[in-house]
Each structure stands twice: as structure tokens, then as C-alpha cells.
Amino acid sequence: MPRLQLGDWINSGVNWLRDNLSWLFDFISSVVQGMYDGLNTVLSGPEPLLLAGILALLAWWLRGLLPAVLAFLGFALIDSIELWGEAMNTLALVLVAGVITIVFAVPLGIWASRNRAVSAVIRPVLDFMQTMPAFVYLIPGIFFFGLGVVPGVVATVIFSMPPGVRMTELGIRQVDAELVEAADAFGTHPRRTLMRVQLPLALPTIMAGVNQVIMLALSMVVIAGMVGAEGLGSTVFQAISSVDVAMGFEGGIAVVILAMYLDRMTSALNQRVSPLARRALAKEKAKQLSGLKVLHWRPATSVAMVGVVVLALVAGGMSMFGGDDEGPEVSANVGKGQSVNIGYINWDEGVASTFLWKELLEQRGFKPKVQSYDVGALYTGMAAGNIDFETDSWLPTTHASYWSKYKSKLENLGSWYGPTSLEVAVPSYVKGVKTLEDLEKKSSTFKKKIIGIEPGAGEMKLMQDKVMPGYGLNKNFSLVKGSTAAMLSQLDRSYSKKEPIAVTLWSPHWAYDKYKLTKLKDPKGAFGKGDRIDSLARKGFSKENPQVAKWIKNFKLDEKQLTSLESAIQDAGKGKEQQGVRAWLKQNPGIANKLAPVPGGADQKGKDAGAAPMIGYFPWDEDIATTYLWKNVLERRGYKPEIKQYDVGSMFTGMSTGQVDVEFDGWLPVAQKQYWDRYKKNLVDVGSWYDKTSLEIAVPSYVKDVKSLADLKGKAGTFDGKIVGIEPGTGEMKLLKGKVLKEYGLDKEYKVSDGSSPAMLAELERSYAKKEPVAVVLWTPHWAYSKYKLTKLADPKKAFGASNQLHTLANKSFPKEFPEFNGWLKKWHMTEKELASLEQAVQDAGKGNEEKGVQKWMDAHPGIVDKMAPVTS
Predict the structure, then answer these.
(1) In a 3-state reduction of DSSP, which class is residue 58?
(2) Global confidence as pTM
(3) TM segments (predicted)?
(4) Alpha carbon distance 205, 119 (integer Å)
């Protein structure tokens, strides 16, 4: 029998409708979206517990005191698990869909009850609507209405309409025919017979249909979440796709609470609006025992409505005058409130990169909205223009089918990570297993099992069809099928016990940041070549949003950065992805400005961007601090500076020969005079950036009556007869021992202890903590003056000599090779307070974290980059 091309006919019909009735679908979309937005605003505005009180009051009016208390506790539970916003989104969606369904279902049921032909025609249609899998309605829904609330509402209306129509028809048909005949005999118009006789008597059955409509609508929230509708559907969908039991249970509990509330309230509403039900309720109340009456007492309608109005007014007032919530910190208002819709697949790297860009765009003044989608819906939504961009397309292989179908309606903004890879991984404590070939010989070590993921995943099919046969693993190993979450759980258990385990993994993945794992090499190339991860956008996005598109095009993360970002989000927990991103940004200072540089601001490129000056520095506090400061500033201006540590003699030699371009710690005209005199023919003095350095002895400010070097005389007992020194070969130590002590008559009374700068600072810290007197060799500038309250002992005899200035010195060719940088350095100047606080920030960050310390200081000094390195147009 020839194949009937039914699917193709339907597809052609859908395309025709989309192309020719787009105006109608746009109108429907506007109406439905407007209804949802309005209702959602009303439900989401009040404080959660206040709205819970309003809903509980309605339950008291309809059901009694006990249901009201239980309703309040249920909604309080939703608030406590931080799903209140999602629950209100869902409630708004259900109510909008329910109202639309009832508006169409009740008249259609009445028509069917009064016309046998209509009933016969719509019955098979209703059967079709009720039995067709609800997921199928999403496909044309996406084509006609795009992504978001509207296709979810439309699918919900179609799915939930049959019981509303059937119950309305049934209720009217069940009205006693003699009553209808009696009304007709008295000359009652058919319309009045319907309104005064049939509908009141059929109302209990119709309300049962309304109840079923709302219950079916609520059951559709998960499906609505798959097409981008906000609410609990999105939460449950994410839990399903990530096999997150905790998130799924919490989302499910919230749905159950909403379902129970709506079921009980719609059932009870029948007792308030139906004459027959009111009569039955009155009889029931009369039979109740006196002790139980208080539990079943319900306030009068007028009293209940007054209570609801009062609470609503209070809620409105709180929403209007509250406003305590802090919005995102905007560091540069580039976006000026412009909305950006970002879609993502619920994969670790997709979640990480999406919420990273959400945070960055918020910092730049945009209002990004992120939503999780199924892969197909994501591509369809971008092609239709409902989604602006996404950052997780695996090309050219994994997502090849989607790209080939939609590429004419999309833009590829470039790859930001690659190559990706599929692999089998083992813990690094498993020795002798470095390749897949090694694995084949150690089957007993791993109990003949490789822990896999979802059976339908591409990697699993590749493992079964190619990798395991290719390495002979199918003979001694079984591939355990399960889920990604189960695989990671088993990895965590085995890793904690130091047990051997082999798992299917891929790169990038946060597991490589959390655990020390070995990626088994694939010498035969059985896994194939890796993909790259691209960012895609809807057609026209780059023209409409050139700045965001430029940032995305330049976006790059290496494996260490991406896996640490994924790990930070994992540590933050579900629902706190952005907090994880913020924690990661704090651990990676400066990266936000590198990824989203502000046009014309701190990250504007310099004229000589790309130049790579070699900067030398001494292991002295002021030089370390200023060198790393300039490194940061130059990188923001597009330079590629290199830094290297030298001793004094090597530095001057290197600059004179051109191996070092510039250094910032020339102590002139005194301390480094001998070096300057020797090499000045091949050097250039760019200028001084810090005035009046000094060499001195310092004591804590709690040591009284010691203000000058002369005051030290006769007080050796106070300081145990010693002055704590630094490295014995330094110029200051030689000057102190050879001249200063003799000049003030202290050479016989005090001994200068040789040591090192760190030892001197450690002794200062210990003594300062105990409030003990101590005299130390110091100099200005130094961060110790920022950390401690110290007294610089005056030197009235000028025994330490004239003060120095800190100069920038460079190779003679430096001004010509780096004219822009040279111009910045000529105008550069720092105060004692600025330099001391910079040194302190670097000290606090610790060895190896100088860049983080500098970034923290720069964050506390906004505008410092433009001040130090202004870029002129």
C-alpha cells in the first residue's frame, strides 16, 4: 500500500496558515500576552505572605477556617522554597488559559446541547483534541506564535477545552424535560428558558467541567515550560533535563499545592453560585454539631470582600512605596535599559556562559532575560526572532542538522571555546592508565564497567558502535547506561573512597575542576574530532545591537576559566547561578572589563595597542605594586606587556643594552647615582612620579617621647639596645652603621641587627601586636605606614642625606618605540597615600596574587585607568 503523505499535507497547511494569516496570529498573540502580563503583574506585585493571606481569605469564604489555614501554610511553603515568583507566573498562565477556555467552551456546549447536528460534528473533534498528545500542539504553536507564554496558553486551551464543552452539554441535557416543557407552555422565550431554567439547574455539572478545565490547564505547565513560558513548568523542565531530584521535587510540590487550592476553590465556588448547591449546603450546616461549627463557619460575602479589598490596598501600597530590592550594579550604562532575550540549553557550559553574559550585560545597563529551552525550540525561536542570541551551539557536528535548517535566518557570532572533546576519564590516582588501550588491559581494576550517561546521548552511541569495538573494550567491559547525574554521583562516591572508576565525560566539564582526572587518550581517533562552541544570534541582531554583538564576537574562555566558572555555579546551587557567576568574577578580577569593555571608557584601545614593552622591576614593594599596576592598565589599552624581576645592577645593564625597555623605581639623585652616572648615555629619564622619598628609623606611635633620632639617646633599655635592620648589603644599612649612628652618638648604645626586610616586618608586627617598643629601619614610601600607626623619627642633622625622587627610567630608544606609553609616563604621578594603599592591597592579596591585589585597588579608585592612560581621538 502506498504511503499516505499525511504529515507533509499538515506541514504544508501549517506553512500556508503562517504565511497568509500572520496578522491574525499576531493579534491573538498580543491579546493573550497582554492578558498574561496584566494578571502576572497583579499576582507578582504584593509581598508573598500578604497575597497568601488574600488567597487564604478567599478559601475561608468558600470552604471554611481550616481550609483557609491550610491554604496559607501551603503558599507559605512555596515562598520558603523560593518558588513564589514561578508559582505566580504559573497561576497567571492557568487563569488566563482557563478564562479563554471557558469563554469558548460554555457557549459551544450550549450550542451542542440545543442542536443534535452540532453535537454530532464536534464530538469527534473533541475526541481528537483530548487524545492527541499535548506535546504535538507545541509544534504549530511555535510556528504561529513563537516562543514564550502564548504557545503554552494556546496548547493549554486546546488540551483543556473538551471537558468544558462536554460537561456543559451534559448538564443542560440532564435538566428535566418536564420543567423545560412547563416553561414553554407558559410562553417563555427560549433564551429566557435557557437563562432562568436550564443553566441554573445545569450549573453544578457545568462547574464540574470548569474544575476539570482548570486541572487540565495546570497539568500543562511542564509543557509550557518547554517552549519558554515562565513559571513552575520551566523549573520542572530544567529538573527533568538535568535529572535534579531536589529541584524536581520542590517544583512538583509547588504544582501540587496550586492544584489542590484551585481544585478545592472551584469546587466550593459551585456552592456559592448554584441555587441547588446553596440549598444542600444549608441543610448540611443545620446538621453540624455545635462544637464543629466554628471550623465550618464562613464569613458573609460582603465581609470577605471587604477583607480582600483591605489586604489588596495594603499590598498595593507596599508595592508602591516599598522598593527595597536592589537591582544589579550598573558600572557603565551602555544599554540604557534595552532588553535582550538570551536562550540556553540546560547543559553546564550553556548555563555558565549564559548567566555570565546576563551578569555582564546587567553591569553594562542592559536588561537581559534568560530562558531555558529544548534544542529544537531554541533554534526555532532564534529563527523566528523571539530569541536574540545563545552561546552553546556545538558546531560543525553536533548541531549540524539545526544549523543547516535555520542558517539563513541566523548569524554566527563566532566560537568562544574549542575544540571540545568526548572521552573516557579516570581519577588521577589510578596509575598505569593513560590511554583507552591501557584501559582494555585493566578491566578487573574497574570491575569490568564503564559508567555511562543517558542511553540516547550521541557519546553513548559512539561508545557502543565505534569506541568500544575499536579498542576491544566490548569484550571485557559493559557500558552502564543511566544519566549524567547518576554518573557524576557515582564518580563522587568512588573518588571520595579512592576507588578506581571509568566514566564517560566530555570537555569542557566542571568535573575536571572539582576532581583530579585523567582524560584517556584516543590514539585511534575513535571519538572523532571535537566540535567548537559557537554563539548564534537571530538575523539582524548585529545591526540592531552592534556593541553586544562585538562583545560576543570577541568572547573567549579557556578550559581552566570555563571549568572553574561551571564549578562556581555548581557550588552556588540551583537557582543561584548568578551568585555563582559573581563569586567567579571576584576570583578573576578584571575579566568583566576584558569581556565587555566599555566603548570610549576604561577599556578603550590605545593608539599603540598590540605593542609589547618589556618592563623590569626590583623585588621592592613600591616597584612590585606599580609594575603590576601598569601591566593591568596597559592590557586594558590593548598592549601586551611583559614583566621580569632583576637586581639593581642587572636592571641598569639590561636597560642600557635594550633588553629591558622601562622600569619605574629609579631612586635619584642619590641612592642609584652610581648606576645612573655609568649608564646614562644609553638611558632616558622619563620623569619622576613620586617626590621626596626618605630613609628613616621608625617606632610605633604608642612609644612616647621619641620623635627624632636624638630622642633615642639614653633609651637603649627601652628598645633592648637594638635597632631592627634589613639586608646588610643595602645602602641604607651601610649609611646607618657608617654615619647616622655616629652622628647622633648612638653607635655605642645600640646594635643594628642584620637580617632581611621580611624579618624586620615580622618583628614589627609581633611587637606592634603586643604593644612593645621597637625601632626598625624603614623608608618612604612603604605600605607599613598604611597598616600601622608609626612615627618617622626626624633627622635634624640630615645624616641620612638628601631625599630621593622615584623616577621612570628607560632605554634611549623607548620614547620613539612607545610614544603613547612614554607620554602617559611623563604625566604620571602618585601621592604617598595612593602608593601606600596600593602596596597594602598587593600585600593583602599575598604572593602570586599581585594582579588580584592591584585589581582590588583599582576597583576602589574608579577612573584610575583614564587618569593614568588617557586615550585621545
Answers:
(1) helix
(2) 0.53
(3) 49-78, 90-114, 134-159, 201-227, 239-262, 303-323
(4) 18
- Record: fold of 694-792: D-Maltodextrin-Binding Protein; domain 2 (3.40.190)
Is 614-692+804-868 the same fold as 21-281?
no
Fold of 21-281: MetI-like fold (1.10.3720)
Residue 597: cis peptide before it, omega within 30 degrees of 0: no
CATH 3.30.70.3040 at 340-595, yes or no: no
Mean pLDDT of 820-843: 91
Q: Which residue has the cell 504549530?
A: 140
- Give residues with Cβ within 8 angstroms of 521, minimum separation 6: 434, 435, 436
- Cell 536562550, residue? 343
Q: Take residue 69 and report the three cell numbers written for it.
A: 489555614
Q: Give me the amino acid identity at 438.
A: D
CATH superfamily, domain 614-692+804-868, is Periplasmic binding protein-like II (3.40.190.10)
pLDDT in tens, 679-725: 999 999 999 999 888 889 999 999 999 999 999 999 999 999 999 99
- pLDDT tens for each residue of 281-338: 555 555 555 445 555 666 666 655 666 566 555 655 554 444 444 445 665 677 788 9
**CB burial readout 533-549, b (16+ within 10 A) else e:** bbbbbbeebbeebebbb
Q: Where are the domains of the chain?
A: 21-281, 340-595, 614-692+804-868, 694-792
pLDDT at residue 247 greater than cutoff 50: yes
Cα–Cα distances in angstroms (integers) from residue 343 to residues 136, 241, 358, in the given order: 22, 15, 11
Residues constituting the chain: 873
Greater confidence, 848 or 581?
Answer: 581
**What is the model's pLDDT at position 740?**
92
